């Protein structure tokens, strides 16, 4: 299946387990340190490839060493990165993630070149050739929130292209801006904090209803260990999480998006596709980083 991911590309530097930040220049020994391709576009692209899709990723990175690494590791996973724009003098977005023993992940983040992504960076003809387009992190790619890009999305959907959208931040002002995309996408996949901040609602059920009223066909709110809430015009369904030993929650949202979209592309309904997303997220949670875990076999788990 041909998929294009558009938006945020990040290099994650992860270490675990971290219980405290050492004082002064003290050293703490840890079990593992990894560098991975991450972000709501790059991380989802890697998982989509692992699920059997042909994927091209679009966005912007710096001309620095981190950008070189991101191109290398995404290519190694099988993602077509030939259309990623490189910004002279800008830094590639990166995060440092000290992973707690319970899988929690505070972060230190620099947004870098993601902030400058615009329609001029995208190959519209390649978008038109895709069966699905996933928008990752539209709340921080400010240059894409313009009528010209909305027109492109509308034209894609008229051609039968599936358009999904995920978010990156939990900042109300940024999420309010991203809400303008909703009339132009099919499915939006926020986490609970994002859905509440995006709408000002008191409950995730109320938030999902408000987002659905903005024109999307489906709202899928991820709820961590409580699974996800799937809301469409036909009603709402709770999809439970799978019980796994959680090592790191980094990238679980990206994996959910990848599993969900793959399920749709295989012809499944929204709730069944959500189960595929749940299975992919559970597998990623057992490792370290957004590319962790072998995603083979999740189709059986997601049935």
From TrEMBL:
The keyword Transferase applies. GO terms for molecular function: kinase activity. Residues 14-291 form the Carbohydrate kinase PfkB domain. InterPro entries: PfkB_dom, Ribokinase-like. Signal peptide: none annotated. GO terms for cellular component: cytosol. Keywords: Kinase, Transferase. It comes from the Bacteria. This is Sugar/nucleoside kinase (Ribokinase family). It comes from Nonomuraea dietziae.
